[in-house]
């Protein structure tokens, strides 16, 4: 029998490739977002597999053929889980984004607890589990990503399929007071206990999960100390850990130093007449606190009128879930706020807020990071927030300032050298910005040097290694690159 190399299998709601309709047909583009950025490099040419939904619910579309070329260039296999429009509506837009997303971000008033969503969520999770069972073998390590797929281990076990499984939650895990509002709380907790390892972004998230588990299963006992512990349920055990996700530090830092990016950085500063730049970068979402941030900048200009004409706030909002009414309303609210602030303070030659509602090419985004004197990262609640880490990696001048929400997961790692603020406290943020704008150069450099060191040491590869070490006592080097010559095409 031929030796079967152990493979790392990533399972997520979306594949790392997006299908886009064009005049000439369909186009395949590399997906955006932290998950793709994080995991694509660690699967490449290591015999890896990624299982997910393509983003299309057209039954007549030959998705596998469209993705074949992308797969060969990416260096790992892609397997598509086909979903119908009804499944997308109930499982993705419904349960995942109208129940779990707001609930886990402490915004339970936005939840719509429709039983139909729950039933569809289970149906789709079973569909994913069937694909995992078909496309993997018992030697593989199955790494499930995020809240869309919390029932994978449960369904694999119900089918009698033995796999080593790990689950990582990219968003926060709520306190018992909030989690207990979920009508299906027991079944969700039970499903999560079926994984061999459940990972969270922060120790606080892990503690919240443990508290919810003990509320529903009083017999649960924690064994051990540190970032990874064992949860004993009496008849079985599984592991819990805190694994703060990160970025490819070198990729961002090196790009910021490329001559063409440095030229873009200079052009941005020149266009804004070398005024101080405060930068916000977010996916358009109600958890990101963009309206509160704009009001905070408005408060800054009102309380410190000497800053008028000397500072610009640049907000980049990447389009997201554009078909959802709540997101349309949020976009309208932000645009109206920008209009009000600019209407109140603008004068010939100076417009205080520059608002961009679009996706930016990677190099242009890096140039904005490099140009910014202050990054204003103030989500109302966030699992981690990689923008904070990207800004630090790109700040090669070493004298930028990170103003960070205390409710972002990144605050747990970066709190010593970031300026922490309450995202709901507009006067507090205004005062923090004013103080940071007047920090002396040495103080800024000292804090940014420490921030950059933190992000460099605890990079994306450290995150993967720490999870795999806890899950299967392996690291990335145990998944060596394979000989791709045997796959060459004629």
TrEMBL record:
Pathway membership, UniProt: Glycan metabolism; glucosylglycerol biosynthesis
InterPro entries in alphabetical order: Glyco_trans_20
One GO-annotated biological process of the protein: trehalose biosynthetic process
Catalytic activity, EC: 2.4.1.213
Reaction(s) the record says it catalyses: ADP-alpha-D-glucose + sn-glycerol 3-phosphate = 2-O-(alpha-D-glucopyranosyl)-sn-glycerol 3-phosphate + ADP + H(+)
Signal peptide: none
One Pfam entry name: Glyco_transf_20
GO cellular component, one term: cytosol
Entry function: Involved in salt tolerance by producing GG-phosphate from ADP-glucose and glycerol-3-phosphate (G3P), an intermediate in the synthesis of the osmolyte glucosylglycerol (GG).
Family: Belongs to the glycosyltransferase 20 family.
Protein name per the record: Glucosylglycerol-phosphate synthase
């Amino acid at each position: 029998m031929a030796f079967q190399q152990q493979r790392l299998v990533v399972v997520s709601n979306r594949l790392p490739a997006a299908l886009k309709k064009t005049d000439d047909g369909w186009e395949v583009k590399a997906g955006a977002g932290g998950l793709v950025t994080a995991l694509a490099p660690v699967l490449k040419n290591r015999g890896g597999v990624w299982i997910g939904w393509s983003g299309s619910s057209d039954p007549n579309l030959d998705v596998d053929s469209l993705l074949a070329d992308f797969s060969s260039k990416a260096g790992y296999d892609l397997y598509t889980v086909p979903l119908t429009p009804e499944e997308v509506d109930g499982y993705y837009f419904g349960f995942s984004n109208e129940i779990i997303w707001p609930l886990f971000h402490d915004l339970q008033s936005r939840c719509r607890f429709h039983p139909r969503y729950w039933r569809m969520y289970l149906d789709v999770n079973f569909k994913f589990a069937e694909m995992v069972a078909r496309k993997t073998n018992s030697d593989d390590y199955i790494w499930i990503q995020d809240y869309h797929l919390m029932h994978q281990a449960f369904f694999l076990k119900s089918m009698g399929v033995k796999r080593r499984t790990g689950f990582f939650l990219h968003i926060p895990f709520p306190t018992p007071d909030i989690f207990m509002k979920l009508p299906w709380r027991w079944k969700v907790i039970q499903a999560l206990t079926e994984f061999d390892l459940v990972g969270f972004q922060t120790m606080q998230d892990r503690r919240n999960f443990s508290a919810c588990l003990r509320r529903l299963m009083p017999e649960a006992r924690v064994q051990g100390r540190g970032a990874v512990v064992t949860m004993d349920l009496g008849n079985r055990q599984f592991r819990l850990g805190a694994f703060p996700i990160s970025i490819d530090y070198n990729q961002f830092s090196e790009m910021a130093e490329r001559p063409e990016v440095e030229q873009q950085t200079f052009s941005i500063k020149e266009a804004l007449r070398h005024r101080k730049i405060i930068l916000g970068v977010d996916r358009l979402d109600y958890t990101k606190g963009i309206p509160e941030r704009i009001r905070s900048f408005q408060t800054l200009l009102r309380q410190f009128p000497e800053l008028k004409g000397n500072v610009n706030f640049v907000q980049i909002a990447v389009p997201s879930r554009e078909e959802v009414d709540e997101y349309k309303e949020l976009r309208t609210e932000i645009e109206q706020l920008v209009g009000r602030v600019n209407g109140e303070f603008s004068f010939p030659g100076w417009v205080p807020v520059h608002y961009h509602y679009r996706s930016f090419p990677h190099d242009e985004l890096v140039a904005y990071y490099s140009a910014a004197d202050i990054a204003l990262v103030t989500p109302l609640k966030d699992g981690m927030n990689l923008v904070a880490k990207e800004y630090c990696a790109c700040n090669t001048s070493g004298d930028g300032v990170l103003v960070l929400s205390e409710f972002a997961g990144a605050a747990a790692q970066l709190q010593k050298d970031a300026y922490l603020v309450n995202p709901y406290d507009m006067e507090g943020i205004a005062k923090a910005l004013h103080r940071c704008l007047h920090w002396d150069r040495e103080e800024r450099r000292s804090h940014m040097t420490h921030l950059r060191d933190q992000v460099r040491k605890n990079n994306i590869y450290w995150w993967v290694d720490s999870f795999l070490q806890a899950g299967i006592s392996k690291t990335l080097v145990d998944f060596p690159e394979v000989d791709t010559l045997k796959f060459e095409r004629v």
